[in-house]
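Lab notebook: predicted structure, single chain.

Context: the supervisor wants predicted structures on file for every construct in the current expression panel, including those that have not yet been purified. This is the next one on the list. No modifications to the sequence; it matches the entry in the shared construct table.
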Amino acid sequence: MIIQGRTIEAGAPPYVIAELSANHNGSLDTALRLLEAAHASGADAAKIQTYRPDTITLDSDGPDFQITEGLWAGRRLFDLYASAHTPWEWHAELFRHAAKIGITLFSSPFDTTAVDLLEDLGAPAYKIASFEAIDLPLIRYVAATGKPMIISTGMADAEEIAEAVNAAREGGCRELALLHCVSGYPAPAADYNLRTLPDMMQRFGMVTGISDHTLDNTTAIAAVALGALIIEKHFTLDRNGGGPDDSFSLEPAGLQHLCTSARTTWEALGRVDYGRKSSEVGNVQFRRSLYFVKSLKAGERVTADAIRSVRPGYGLPPKYLDKVVGTVVTSDVEYGAPVTWQCLNSRV
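Prediction complete. Output recorded below exactly as produced.
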């Protein structure tokens, strides 16, 4: 998968997405500062959400439209989305500013009109949110743009994920990725069952990552060790800012730590390699080897108590201990001299 020139694959560092979501808290200036902070923290991309309250829910007081549990309990869906949405008139400025400072910006559209707006703005990719992963018509509409698509899988079972993938492929999407996700806000690490990641990679055969809603970076970094190629985390300037998503989002220092740690983890994975590493070369001398612990005259036989395996490593490797015992020294040797084949009358 390639998004705006950045290749996302096993041979590249993990792709880190800072999800701005509702953390602008109604301020365009805050949204612009979020883009700048995400870029400064090392994120590859920032993501927004494109909807209006009337395109995502109904302006209804009915019981179906009341939130009774969780972080947003006591609010109507319409009121929550009215306060949380990113105004459409901001979008052009956000895309301009992202291009100016050099960070990729894309969005999660929640209906076809949002896709049309984002297409007009030249969005380089699309993200399907977990709650929309079952909206197959929306997935097909996004797929028809021909842009890379990332589908978050929170709450979706294996059959629903397969349906979403099939809809994307049928719609024309050629560059598709899946994010393992738990749609809890916040989500406990134990709910993530990260062993699902390798199975998802094998089952669906595509770029796979994680949308992490835990409160720290441990889960995301562990996911990189299991092969995650994309990491998405909610991002805020202030976790105590009082916005709908602030409390479970990373602040700039946390995002910087995530970017650094995820890439270090990826580097540490490396490849299968049993050879000596560059950082080890200077330390070879400190490995164990055979040394004389008695002075011997030329012609004397080497006994077991005349040599020992010690550091440093300038003598013969310890594996030759049994072969050296019983040989004869060909010249005088002093206590503390390394055992070498040159000073013995036979060799293996």
